[in-house]
Structure formats: C-alpha cells, structure tokens
Amino acid sequence: MRIAIVTGASSGLGREFVRQLEHFYRELDEIWVIARREERLVELKKEMKTYVRVFAGDMEQSLVYKQVKNRLENQNPDVRMLVNAAGFGKIGTVSDVAQEDKNLQLRMIDLNCRGLTEMTCVCLPWMSRGSRIVNLASAAAFCPQSGFAVYAATKSYVLSFSRGLGAELKDKGIWVTAVCPGPVDTEFFQVSGSAGSLMKESVMAEPYDVVRQALLDVREKKELSVYGAAMKGAEAAAKLLPHSLVMKAMEKWGR
Ligand SMILES: NC(=O)C1=CN([C@@H]2O[C@H](COP(=O)(O)OP(=O)(O)OC[C@H]3O[C@@H](n4cnc5c(N)ncnc54)[C@H](OP(=O)(O)O)[C@@H]3O)[C@@H](O)[C@H]2O)C=CC1
Ligand SMILES: N[C@@H](C=O)C(=O)O
Known about the structure:
The protein is of the alpha/beta class. The protein has a single domain (2-254), classed as NAD(P)-binding Rossmann-like Domain (Rossmann fold), CATH 3.40.50.720. The protein has eleven helices and seven strands. Strand 2, helix 2 (38-47) and strand 3 form a beta-alpha-beta unit. The N and C termini lie far apart (46 Å). The site of the ligand N[C@@H](C=O)C(=O)O has 7 residues, from loops. Pfam families: adh_short.
C-alpha cells in the first residue's frame, strides 16, 4: 500500500498539499492527515477521492506520534511522501511575546522543530527509493528577524535539518525538499498576528500557487522550493549581503 502523510492538514498549506497530491501522485492508496481540529480533517476526507485516514491529535503531545507509528507497524505501507506542514509563528519581540504567554515560544520550538523531527523519524523506516520528505520552512529561514526572532530561528532549523537529512538520504534515493515561501494567505496570520506591513501584503501568495510550485520542485528533486520573484530576491539578498543590512531593511519595510 502506497501512502502520503501530511501534518497540519486542517488548513492552509497542509490542506492544499492533500488536495493537490491526489492529482500529482495518482498511485497513492491512502493519504494520512494529522492536525488537532478533527472536524476539519473529516471535511477534507469527504471532498477527496483517495481514502483519507484521520489522526486528530496535538503534535506537542506524544500520543499522536504513537498512533501513527502503531498504524505504520500494523499496515506496513510504503510511505511515498511525508509533508511536514504543522507549525505556527507569533509576531512580536521575544520579551513581549513571553510576557503575554511565557510558554508560547517554547511551544513554537516544540512544534516547528521537535514535532517535525519526530514525525520524520517515525516515518523514515517506511520510506524507500523515490520517497519524498517535504518540510515547510519559510523565507524567514534565510536571515534572522527581529520581531519574529523565535519563529525565524525555528525555520532556520527546518532548512538546515532538511539539507543535512537530504545529504544523508541521497544514496537511499529519498529526496528532501525544504519549502520556503514568503507570506501566504492562510490562517497563519490569525495565529501569528496580522502581517501588518504593506510590503508583506504586496507579496502575499495564494496557497494553491505555492503548493503547486513546491510539488513541481519536489518532482524535480530540488533541495529548495522558493515561490515567486520577491522571495527568490530575498534568498539572494540573504546570501550576498551582510545579514545586519538585510535585517535593517526588514525592520524598515518588513513589518
Ligand atoms: N502562511 C505563511 O505565510 C507561511 C507559512 N509557512 C509555514 O507553513 C506551515 C503551514 O502554515 P499555514 O498553512 O500557512 O498555516 P495554518 O495556520 O493555516 O496551518 C497550520 C496547521 O498546523 C496545524 N497545527 C498547529 N498546531 C498544531 C499542533 N499543536 N498539533 C498538530 N497540528 C498543529 C494546524 O491544525 P490544527 O490547528 O487543527 O491543529 C494547521 O493545520 C507552517 O509550518 C508555517 O510556519 C511558511 C512560510 C509562510
Ligand atoms: N514567511 C512568512 C512566514 O513564514 C512571513 O513572512 O510571515
């Protein structure tokens, strides 16, 4: 049995991956979806032609990883693709965010870094030649960001982890792609707080376009998927210019 597993499938980019996977990978027998909001996952299941198996659980807790692992052990499927999309951010200085909720940034690190790593480790034994791992990093991974410091750091982790893991798995024929979008019009900003800058609003992308580009890049075994000219420019700027300069520009126009 060939399956794909998608975390963060109840909204935004994760949900869009599930929708488009059906068209990109017609040979899939099942898609396993993970998020806390079960009713959203059930809605998604109803609209899909492919069988969707729902795992409703909090990836900050251990139970859902055990449930996925048990199911993998029982069914012994071939995991053709893992999409790690579950994640969140919070706009604000480190001390402001901590004052509002002292655990929030620690939870962010837990989900964005530990959760993504744990789900990858759970799935890896069931992956084989040609399987893909797709990790949702962000353009925020390219350079530190004041006013979004913990989030940007978690996404740098995701980018670095994806590259290192990709190098480890190359000989096994398992390909890892880090997806690094700029702002995308999802519920992300309801959680993080408003994007609130003209610059961000002007480059806001649609989930459909970002995911379509990502799946094309995944097909081509690209290490990185960066959607749109603006974010390609941001990636180049972060490579070529001192980060202190990029950070100043971001502070002036970015938020
Ligand atoms: N939108 C943007 O501008 C960008 C987003 N990204 C990244 O893309 C990924 C997807 O974000 P996006 O789709 O935009 O945002 P959404 O807020 O729309 O989706 C986030 C998803 O993560 C799930 N999630 C959140 N917390 C948990 C948890 N504790 N356990 C299980 N699932 C959880 C949510 O499901 P539920 O609440 O039901 O649990 C939801 O399905 C994130 O990693 C984000 O950092 C990267 C660049 C840009
Ligand atoms: N890229 C977005 C988050 O990851 C943002 O710029 O807010």
